[in-house]
């Protein structure tokens, strides 16, 4: 495959544009191995993960000290991540917060429960971008497996191309890590990843919508309140 684009390089970390279909964990073909070979790095450390079908911003540390510091920023919710997704049909809510515990049910599929002992918290806005197609800008406040996919499924909007949680097949899973924002050693970093794959993302309507999302951190994100469910 062609080289993985490097969006930002720092002495302690890289932010790269993960392609669709590249896995996190495979010893031969995983993202860490590919980047180590491409960048001629002796070691790289994943600080967070993206599903195989998800593209976009991925942060990797270049040394163990940075890996520990950046992982702590993720653990304490000091790194903001913003995703875009496409889904067909009309959601139960057009914006809000989805909050609840997640459990692994079967076949690697997770479900959202009504309890909030250790909840996944996901915020979103949505807009109609074409007949029968809706775009979502999503901010996960926690980092659970399949969190965004489960959250949108719970509001009746499984992500286009998500065969695990929905029925609509497509040329890709329409979930993309658009932007990452954080402060590290006193400096603030905000890095975006352009979309490079997916007919619906790259369509005229999709591109017109994406142009409205250049700085999603400044959207009027809802306060987290209430119990499990959509507020």
TrEMBL record:
Cited PANTHER family: MITOCHONDRIAL RNA PSEUDOURIDINE SYNTHASE, RNA PSEUDOURIDYLATE SYNTHASE DOMAIN-CONTAINING PROTEIN 1
Domain of life: Bacteria
PROSITE patterns per the UniProt record, alphabetical: PSI_RLU (PS01129)
Protein name: TIGR01621 family pseudouridine synthase
InterPro entries linked to this entry: PsdUridine_synth_cat_dom_sf, PsdUridine_synth_RluA-like, PsdUridine_synth_RluA-like_CS, PsdUridine_synth_RsuA/RluA, RluA_PseudoU_synthase
Similarity comment text for this entry: Belongs to the pseudouridine synthase RluA family.
Pseudouridine synthase RsuA/RluA-like domain residues: 12-153
